[in-house]
Amino acid sequence: MRDDELLTVADVTARLKLGRSTVYDLIRSRRLPSITVSRCRRIPARALSDYITHEMEAAA
């Protein structure tokens, strides 16, 4: 996964093994940063990586 890659919500749900609504909840709560590109929600790969790192540190 490249840091400059933009992921779809479906990509993120597959990588995190979470439901679509859970990913949108993470976006809404600003725990997972995203951008809108032509009415489509996109999550920067770096933001997903940072989210995972943060959650792992919090769980430790």
UniProtKB/TrEMBL annotation:
Record-annotated Helix-turn-helix domain positions: 6-53
Pfam family, one: HTH_17
InterPro entries, alphabetized: HTH_17, SinI_DNA-bd
Protein name: Helix-turn-helix domain-containing protein
Species in which this protein is naturally found: Streptomyces sanyensis
